[in-house]
Specification:
alpha+beta; membrane; 4-stranded mixed β-sheet; single chain
């Protein structure tokens, strides 16, 4: 049975309980409190020491302001249309998404690993064996999602294990256990796919027609990765959540170069053969 995550961004409240639970269970160090100046989010991105990251995404109203602006009148005028005729006063809106390793079906990091450190375990999760990793870092640029990084002063690469040790004991991953709104769900990938489709249909029936599942080949957003075991319910374009619209295997970029090189070598060989005949 393949296990994975379903992250429903529509009910994420940005509490970061998943981040804390992940760090606590996996004994990962804190990231400090650096002020980025562009977000209220201090952990910024996934890394070798942050395996769950709640992204704070601010969606300002697309309105250009010029001249003298009456801010009171502006605040009274700005509303977000909601289904059923309801309105939400706001100058914009916030979205939150708990990001994590996508556990790709065709994992580029696994294909790039020269030592066999990255495997698929018995739960069909992409798993890094730290005792075999030699710190070469080939998996880092291979990941189309920027999930994997090398840990400073260690050199080895780390990422979400989908709480492999907890799964062995029949427990759900720490992040899913800690989520207070059930935004993070864990289970069989096929079951999660059905749950995701039902949730999207429910949202669309309520008027949120932009809702969709990201991470399944049928819907798109998976390119040459053949789908992900970490799926997401989104309300905006993937790029809004810093997700690629069409992730691909790195070798897809080299296919054209390989073909061109083969053609050039054939032509060159033919020229040399003609030059030295007789």
């Amino acid at each position: 049975m393949a296990t994975g995550f379903l992250t429903d961004t529509t009910v994420c409240i940005g509490c970061k309980a998943c981040e804390v639970a992940c760090k606590q269970w996996n004994q990962l160090p804190a990231d400090g409190y650096e002020f980025t100046g562009d977000s209220y989010d201090n952990t910024k991105q996934l890394s070798g020491t942050t395996w769950r990251h709640v992204a704070f995404i601010e969606n300002p109203k697309k309105r250009r302001l010029t001249g003298d602006v009456d801010l009171v009148a502006l605040a009274e005028d700005v509303t977000e249309p909601l289904p059923g005729g309801a309105e939400l006063d706001a100058l914009g809106r916030w979205a939150f998404m708990s990001d994590v390793c996508k556990h790709c079906v065709a994992a580029p990091c696994q294909q790039a690993c020269p030592t066999g450190s990255i495997i698929r375990n018995e739960f069909d999760n992409v798993y890094i064996q730290p005792d075999i990793c030699n710190g070469c870092g080939y998996c880092v640029p291979a990941c189309p999602y920027g999930v994997i990084t090398q840990v400073p002063n260690d050199g080895r690469a780390f990422k979400c294990t989908l709480c492999y040790d907890r799964q062995i004991d029949g427990l759900e991953p720490a992040c899913a256990k800690a989520c207070p709104t059930n935004s993070i769900q864990f289970g069989d990938v096929e079951d999660l796919k059905v749950i995701a489709e039902q949730r999207v249909q429910e949202l669309q029936d309520k008027g949120y027609t932009q809702a969709y599942v990201w991470g399944t080949p049928e819907v798109g957003g998976t390119g040459g990765i053949d789908g992900n075991h970490s799926k997401f319910i989104l309300m905006d374009e993937p790029e809004v959540y810093n997700l690629p619209r069409h992730p691909f295997l790195p070798q897809e970029k080299f296919r054209g170069g390989v073909i061109a090189s083969a053609v050039a070598a054939t032509v060159l060989g033919a020229v040399v053969a003609l030059a030295f005949r007789d």
